[in-house]
Write a structure and sequence with these properties.
Elements (H helix, E strand, L loop, with lengths): L19 H22 L1 H10 L3 H18 L2 H8 L7 H8 L2
Helix pairs in contact: 1-2
Length: about 100
């Protein structure tokens, strides 16, 4: 599934060139997935969760997002890209913050 939400962050926009049609396609696919999950695949489960805890669905989606991020980090290229900043961090200055 193409999850393109992250590229709409203002600090990332200038580095991406994703056509509007591709973004709309991503939104459509995600919307279709949510609709299918609630209407076709799991309507009884969704009602039960909401009845047991009004915040239950929100909590469940928070878990889904965490899993999606974790799954992205499984890819070596993504981990490398995320970790590339570390060579620019001044560890000594940061350590100084914690010295009493």
């Amino acid at each position: 599934m193409d999850l393109l939400f992250h590229v709409t962050h203002p600090e990332l926009e200038s580095y991406t060139n994703i056509p509007t049609a591709d973004m709309q396609n991503s939104y459509q696919r995600i919307g279709d997935l949510f609709t299918r999950l609630f209407v076709e695949d799991c309507p009884n489960e969704a009602r039960a969760v909401r009845q047991a805890d009004p915040q239950g669905l929100k909590k469940a989606f928070e878990v889904v997002v965490k899993i999606a991020i974790r799954d992205m980090l499984i890819e070596k290229e993504v981990r490398t890209a995320v970790n590339n900043y570390s060579s620019f961090v001044d560890q000594e200055k940061i350590k100084g913050v914690f010295v009493e």
